[in-house]
Write a structure and sequence with these properties.
The chain is α/β, with parallel strands linked by helices. Helix content is 42%, strand content 14%. A 7-stranded mixed β-sheet has the order 2-10-9-8-7-3-4, with helices on both faces. It has a 3-stranded antiparallel β-sheet with strand order 11-14-13. A two-stranded parallel sheet has the order 1-12. Helix 8 links the parallel strand 8 and strand 9. Helix 2 runs antiparallel to helix 10 and helix 4 crosses helix 9. The model has no long low-confidence stretch (mean pLDDT 97).
């Protein structure tokens, strides 16, 4: 490989949310969704150049920013975006909140497909809306959509939006074209707008293909809003940059107003430069990253099959977040995560934070050097062995 993803890069002491939230220096964090790798060299060079200028005032987002975004999605995903469809903001979560504010009123209902990214819940509640769940069906170590239930839930006239997570966090699914078409047709039929969170869209593994929901048809394009960002693929969460894409001019006006009401209409110069460099020069690095992450996933699966067979690993089609079924323990997710942290200093995410259907699961972030992943898995194994000894 041209890029060294095995390099151990110390992050403790850098005010890292992931690494410095635990006061105990022996804690190994494999929870929050950022990576322990350097970003693409082209991004680092672009940011160095910007720092050397030495003045960091308010930024005007240039045409180069829009062109980089448009060209990236056209080249990699055959999705033709127009500049006028793009609204920049500081992150996908602020984007989701602004979209909900723009397209709903207090008391309206918003559909989610649980288990799902926990910030969906807070964004809905903070806008005075009601959460309605279309639970995914878990079987054979993967998830599928309950379309009958989706049809039933969208028929409620108070349901205004469906928050679609594609690729799905934490279930690991990359929804295929046929599934997306069924979702889109149901939502069109019931006058429900699809809000697609596609932040993990670049992190898709072999044999799977990310399809932008809005790219499928003109009808889907006009009945959807899409949130995209280079933050997950290029490890740029702290740069705080994301885009909202809508082809409906009236919807854009409403979202733009909500963005300003929420005061997330300004971005920083580093986010702008990072996006341009990532989309224009980061493709080779990204492809190597994906291979490394896929190898990490296969390593984890083999480890669990050999040492932890009672905990099924959900099939990972995309993202770097592995969803593990620990229901055999008959313990809550919170208890499992607390016990792992206290006894083995391993910090994971409890499945229950992603909705009731996540109870009994844990989420593991594998975006780290293999040596770190191995250490985390060994700690998990030691914890399980400790439990077995206690039980006997």
């Amino acid at each position: 490989m041209k890029y060294n993803f095995d390099e151990i890069i110390p992050r403790r002491g850098t005010n890292s949310y992931k690494w410095d939230s635990a006061t105990d220096p022996n804690v190994l964090p494999m929870w929050v969704a950022d990576m322990d790798f350097h970003t693409a060299p082209a991004v680092t060079e672009a940011l160095k150049k910007r720092v050397e200028h030495g003045i960091f005032g308010y930024v005007r987002v240039p045409d180069a920013y829009y062109n980089a975004t448009i060209n990236w999605f056209k080249r990699r995903h055959d999705w033709r975006i127009e500049k006028e469809w793009i609204i920049y903001t500081s992150g996908v979560v602020p984007a989701l909140s602004a979209i909900i504010k723009a397209l709903t009123g207090p008391g309206d209902k918003v559909l989610v497909q649980t288990p799902v990214y926990n910030c969906f819940f807070s964004s809905i509640r903070n806008n005075g809306c009601e959460i309605v769940s279309n639970p995914l069906i878990y079987e054979n170590e993967t998830y599928r959509i309950d379309f009958d239930d989706l049809e039933k839930k969208t028929a409620d006239s108070k349901v205004k939006l469906l928050l679609l997570c594609n690729p799905h966090n934490p279930a690991g699914r990359v929804w295929n074209r046929e599934e997306l078409i069924r979702i889109g047709e149901i939502c069109l039929r019931n006058h429900v707008t699809v809000v697609a969170d596609e932040i993990h869209c670049e992190l898709v593994f072999p044999e799977y293909t990310y399809t932008p929901f809005a790219s499928i048809s003109q009808e889907f394009l006009m009945n959807s809003v899409t949130c995209i960002s280079p933050s997950k693929a290029f490890n740029l969460a702290g740069a705080q940059i994301a885009n909202i894409v809508s082809a409906d001019a009236d919807v854009c006006k409403k979202i733009d107003k909500a963005i300003n009401i929420n005061e997330v209409c300004d971005v920083n110069p580093f986010g702008v430069e990072a996006l341009i460099a990532a989309y224009n020069e980061g493709e080779e690095w990204l492809e190597e990253l994906k291979r490394y992450l896929f190898d990490n996933y296969n390593y984890l699966r083999s480890f669990f099959a050999k040492h932890l067979p009672e905990f099924p690993v959900t099939k990972l089609e995309g993202t770097y977040l592995v969803w593990v079924d620990c229901s055999a323990l008959k313990r809550t997710s919170e208890d499992i995560v607390t016990s792992l942290l206290e006894q083995e200093k391993l910090w994971l995410n409890e499945g229950s934070m992603y909705g009731d259907t996540g109870e009994g699961f844990v989420r593991i972030n594998i975006a780290c050097p293999r040596q770190v992943l191995t250490e985390g898995l060994e700690r998990f194994k030691q914890w399980k062995n400790r439990i077995k000894q206690t039980e006997t």
